[in-house]
Amino acid sequence: PAGKELYSNIGPAEEAGRVHQTIDDGDTERTWRFGIEALAAEENEPFPPGPFERSLFVHYSTMETWEQFARWYATVIAHVGGLDAAMERLLERVTTGTGEPRAIAESIARFVADEIRYVGLELGVHGLQPYPPQEVFARGFGDCKDKSLLCVTLLEAAGIEARLVVVPTLPRGTVELTPGSPSVFNHAIVYLPSWDIYFDPTARYLGLGILPWQNQGANALIVEADKPQQVVLPVAPYSETVARFELTVTPTDGGDLAVSGTLTFGGQFAWRLLGAMEQQGSWNNTVESYLSSVLPVVEIVAVSERVERGQSPAVIVDVEGLWRQQGSGGVQLLPDGNAAFALVKRPERRLPLVFGYPYQHDFIITFEPGTLTFPDGGFDASQSEDAAWRVAVESLDQGRTQVHVRFEQRARRIAVERYQEYRSLVVRYQEALTRLKGIRGGP
Hints:
alpha+beta
């Protein structure tokens, strides 16, 4: 309509000059035209930032600011009506025996995440408007905004302040939230102001304050009619997402080598592995693939697992297997070290190198006499702002040898200007792994 304003944002900045905007005013309507010059095809790079950072876009809306959108969306998600009888019984159950708000909040969060299934039925208006919390609770499923609004409703009924948060997830890249519109958002989570923490009700097993990697670092919006807030969601440090393998290799009468030990997965690794655990038909193969990335090739004999939930979630796998090695030649450990090297094969990059999350790999392998020997031994290490690694071979008592390899991906995002330093570090790590060879047999 002639009296209606349209606001737009054209990006990324280096591509904005390719868009030409004209406005034609008529008697009853106003016409906006965006003319886009011919664009070259994008060159693919591994682990690039999201499309909002690398591809030309025109984002337009009749709402000028994100504050306007947040206040409007607060009216869209508002539902009349309190808790039904079944919801009341749930609150009575989780509050019985404890007056501790944090424990109550954790119980409510766990119920919504684990017991209300994620199913996206985003039909018609419900692509934007959540279903009523009472309906979501009764049917036992909902999408991200359904589960988040249900979680907020239950928390506030228990006397715990909570807010719905809309998020453009990491695969979209860093998104500017102006002008205000729902088109940049593709997810919804929950904010608890009392502890200044966030919770994603679609992430089973993760506790309060631990976000899945897709949310971390995003420019998000706390939806509130009175005081909406734009926030940057926290990014967990690399030390919280750890894969730690502690293994012992011993000889057997049959000539193979026996492998036993514990695989511990924490943080985002734990969240990923829990999904694999649910596929019991292929679970042994999954564990074998992890072991074979360190000691090729291991056949599982026995495996058991346990899950630790809460603030430091972990999956702990106790494993026994046979390492099928033939002959007495050199044995290359950690053959999958090439995976890291594949990311830096390019001598140059145009775009930042973006990881889902920073992480730490810790491999500690003890070789008993009669298995492998490492005549060269030694120690090598390197570190930078973005990553660090070390490879150590140590002689222990009674003829045993211990190999300890650690790689820390400290930064989630490697800027173009730091790429060469990072590339050099990873290449040196790959060279150190190439030298990590054991000789079959020994004292």
